[in-house]
## 1
Amino acid sequence: MLRADGAGALVTAHKIGNQNLLAAACPRGRALGLARGMPLAKARLLVPGLDVRAADAEGDSAWLARLGLFAARRWTPRAAVSGPDGLWLDLTGTAHLLGGERAMCARILGFCRRLGFTARIAVAGTAGAAHALARFGGEPLILCPSGGEADAVAPLPLAALRLDEAASSAAHRLGLDRIGALLAMPRGPLQRRFGPTLLTRLDQALGGAAEPFDPIVPEEPPSVLLRFIEPIATAEAIEQAIAEAVRRLVHRLAEAGLGVRRLVLACQRVDNSEQCQCVNLARAVRDGDHIRRLLCAKIEKIEPGFGIERLRLTAARVEPLAPRAVDGALAGAPAAPDLALLVDRLAVRLGARRVHRLTARESDLPERSVGRISPLGGAAAWPSWPRPVRLLVPPEPVEQVMALLPDGAPVRFTWRGRAYRVAAADGPERVYGEWWRCPQEREAVRDYFQVEDEVGARFWLYRCGDGGDPATGDQSWHMHGLFG
Amino acid sequence: MHLAALPRDARLAALREEVRAIERSRFAVPAAAAPCLAFGIAEVDARLAGGGLAAGLHEAAAATPAANDEAAATLFLAALAARFAMARGEGGQVLWALARRDLFAPGLAQAGLAPDRLIYAECRNDDEVLAVMEEGVRHGSLAAVVGEVGRAAMPALRRLQLAAEEGGTAALLLRRWKKANADPLGQPSAALTRWRLACAPSAPLPHDGIGRARWRLALVRQRGGPPYEWLLEAPDAEARLALPARSGDRPDRADGAQPVAARPSVQAA
């Protein structure tokens, strides 16, 4: 018996009732005869070595909704999700902005390809025809000429008309399997035999019946726009304007129950150029005074030029922020000040990247064992191997080291031109190179020693190499840190 | 009140109280509201005016320009900050304002200052370090603010000290050596206490290895008390400093079977 080799074919499966059915198959799987709706057991029998994953319908629809939102923002104001696998885009009056229908569709296809999706696009005068051609046309890009919908959909199977189960099976029994066959028949008998759905769908595809859809409306971030009669240029005037904008923005945020994480202040000058200042907040806030203080710290970075005409304050990132119970007010204890407010102020003063926490990273190399996280994040602790409090980056060379090979601690060494005699030592602690990051480290080894000299000063030294094998390092000594 | 009518001890106490009231700024909170943080070592706490460190400015510096002594001073301040943070409970947070990038966080964690208690602020110069520290202590949400500076002018230190008292937050300032012959503690300062640290040889172990680090800790100046000097053991993972065990309490060196390093020393009063 000849069985196809299914190595590499990928399908997703979902459970409907008691049956495990295929939800989708990759092109290779489809070439081997797998199709949507086939029982999984049968598919496994047909194609051994099949890679089966669970279908994630919610994840797919979430992606589709994101794509729809993107389309509504970037391609056309009227976009909507169509079924579990498609998007409607109304190109009326927008295609010329992106270089015509063909260029626009090619761009969209390229965008989807870069995202990792295989997309097909059909452009037609009616939604029904576009729907049918996109799914059953067989080409990645079909541009249906105006008025040519009937000819275009005629060779397509009946399934392209979005019929219900009863109508499609009845049509199949009668031997009607192409839309063209329906077009040739009188409408009366069709209505009597198949009910109203078939004719409605047919009319929608040919333009005889309207098919409105509900477009996605992207949510605009809350923002406040101030226009000035006279352009403003002084710091005091800008401060006043900011105070007013913040007052209005906080009011809008409070109505929507939101707190702001990222603010953008855009000042449009009379010469039509824009000055943008951005403030990130450590936690969602709606405190007007706090926001105003942060923005006012940015005033000196604004160059008003000949004056600012318009000022727009946008809450670019918002998070839900519910009212909070005031604790301790009745008991008389003063509420502790909020650390997040201090972090915001420091971030504005120093720059957002300069205020941070340090957390453990999974690496034995000291240089790589520390990572930055946000200042209020949760940090992980390091393992309790002895570590110095000051680290020398890069490590400094140590000369004239006297140490027993292969693993003896230094007895004396010279660092920064001064000779040290070791009184006590601990080690070695061996650290291996991380070959998965960098192929040069495949053999590399460092042996760390903690040594104390005669007056009690403690050093953290290492030797490149394990003391024997030259492939592990050049046996040179380095000073890497200082203990207290 | 007629001081002359009082007995000698009470008269001294009243005078001290009066001096303290003069020293305290007009913004300062009453002394009762700002409890002192004790070291937990009876010998040290007994020498400190008030029995511990109050919320205010405290300075530490290395006794020599050697990098190791500076590391010791860093660890000392880290341990103090950790103790201030622990005194605030679970959520006690410390801000570390630094102008140089050689601080190594795992080393601080081993002195008791856990990474989730510590926020770093990278500053461009000493003036910015002092300004960030002042903002930190004034806000009042932190347990302690640590800063590292090379040079600090008296007015800035005075401001910092007032802000720290006002905010009820400890300001811990590491004075780094700028030049080999310019002692950072040589200039006057508004600090409540000033400390000088030097590494000292650790106790030899009966086997190979290194014992707990030791420091010569000198209290150079304190407000309302005389200077003093101790030999102390470096902080452990819970930020506890310790006095070295007296020779009578030490395990016999010839007896290698006894655990040596884990021996606790004199405990808190």
## 2
Amino acid sequence: MGPAERLRQAVASDVAEPDDRELVARARHDPGAFGMLYRRYSGRIYAFAHRRTWTREAAEDVTAATFERAYRHLDRFDTSGAGFGPWLFRIAANELVDHYRREGRIRTGRGQRALRALSDDASVDDVERIERDDDVRRMLEALSTLRPRYQQALSLRYLAGLNPDEAAEAMGCSKPVLAVTLHRALSALRRAYDRTERADEVAS
Amino acid sequence: MSRTSRREMRELLERAGRRPVPRGVGAIDSSDPSIVDDDESTRSLVEAPGLAVATAEMRTNGASRGGRSEMVALLEAAGSRRVPPVDPAFLDRTEARILGADVDSLAPRRERRSRRPAVIASVAAAIAAFIAVGALAGLFGGGDEGTEVAVWSAVDTIVVLPDGDRVEAIRGLELPDGTVIRTGPNGFARIDGVTLGPDSEAIVEEGRLRVVSRAAPTTLASTSKQQAPADGPAPPVVAAPVPDAGAPPAPQQAPPAPSAEAPAPTNPPSAEPSPPPPPLLPLPEPILDLPLLDDLRKLLPLL
């Protein structure tokens, strides 16, 4: 191996980003390492929170609280268990449950319908988009009424984009148990959605 | 949405999938290995003939899948929704606050130390209440999910949830109504006191297990014959009557699974139909399927 090759490898090893476990181990003594984890995951956590809460302010609150809690409890993270990502998403899912406990239900839909009624010149695509957003918001409203475990399972699997293995790790259960939990959670969501829809129809 | 058909939902999803999503902060990175194509999960739907029949039967019996699919579609639409980029100023501010602050000063939004005794007491009270409520719910069959059927033990057994998800049967797994349980050629499962031998199929209905088909006890020869077509259709399963609660218990000396040392059938195959031979190795009968317990189960909700 020539000097040029050695130099190239040395540069590459400097440039290569350390993996999560290594960063977590370092972050217990070095805040800068946690900063790297923060930059690595803050976008995904924010996106997860935003998809669930639909507002920038709430998403920022949840994101900040998630990383604060993670930093505070970094010593509880077991490097031999689930990865840092699932662990972080689990914290975020818990923060979201807390958020809805504090804030109560989200009330959505009416504003969108009012907008639809006002904008007569809205295109078909606009109306379709608003209607679809209405449905999604109503579903999220129904989601916030479920028991915490169901909220966590559905959020982690569908809104955080975790695959079944990661979601099971984040939930601290096996894949079969996650599948059963998701099945029940979807049934509960369906019922809650119907209730929300009926309530909206009565209100309008 | 309730008026939205599944076809429309699929179109919505397809449209959402075609929509350009910016890379960078706040957007889903399609190259991210942690984000998978959810079609993977639907591809794992069970195609085994017996299960297909059972699941189709369940659907026609009212275990609707449409509503659940709509929920999944909405969840996926929410999960793929475009998110506005996160404010860089917020990220910088938060990072500086977290990393610049002493760990102990971060958060406790509640004064945990001073409240510890009260918290412990309230947690203990909550746990006690939870156990009491759980016990009552278990006794009287209350709660969202009704009576639970659970796997006691299982080997080479799969569970097909009503939505088509196929998972391995593991000890302690609770089985909702509509779940199909199928044991493999070397399978064995004990579910709520009912024993399923190899190549058996059962379904959970109204919080109870109903044996749909139970393979006749097999000999070495017939077992190897059944295992031969690996990818072909499943061998016909000899249906056995659902265990009668009033029937006398099966001989206890019989092992739960067929033994490889069992003698081969002595009668040569004949073209003429002949009455099936008596079981050589009868499967153990359900232990808890006693008439008295059944009556008690029916009475409990009335109390």
